[in-house]
Amino acid sequence: MEYVSLGVIKDSFGLDGTMKIFSTTSNQKQRYKEGSKVFLYNPQTHERSELNVAKFRQNGPFDFLKVNEFNAPEEIKLIKGYEIHAIKDEISLEKGMYFYSDLKGCQVVDKDNNVLGIVKEVEEFPAQLTLRVSRNGNKDFFVPFVKQFIKSVDIENKRILIEIIEGLL
Hints:
Layout: E1 3-13, E2 18-23, H1 28-31, E3 37-41, E4 48-59, E5 62-67, H2 73-77, E6 83-87, H3 100-103, E7 107-109, E8 115-124, E9 129-135, E10 138-144, E11 150-154, E12 159-162
Parallel strand pairs: 7-12
Antiparallel strand pairs: 1-2, 1-6, 2-5, 3-4, 3-6, 4-5, 7-8, 8-9, 9-10, 11-12
């Protein structure tokens, strides 16, 4: 079974055991429907445990998630830094949307079909998502995940066509 990360627990919020999560997903309303299941993931031990969603609200880059399994701020303090995951197959995406994990490993090519490197990581910066692309024998380079640079994404064939500007490589 494959999982996707929905966010990282940053702290507790309030007195009822609500989690303050830095979101790494979109369409949270679908993902955090009352009664749905999500998973608590410990990045150190790689253990997962199932959680049942009780309430959800969003404010800026943060999701505030109350689950039935936690009822006090002290409990949330113990899981700071853990991630909230969902089962990938159970999440439907809108057309033109991708899971970060789908972008990793894609070849990055220019308009002449020259392979420039492989997507190593999808990083989130305040301005936008950015692809970290590794190249054999050279330093990694970064490509902002915006229309000006990303011309097409073909997940099926694991290829991303980019527009190169001076200074990018």
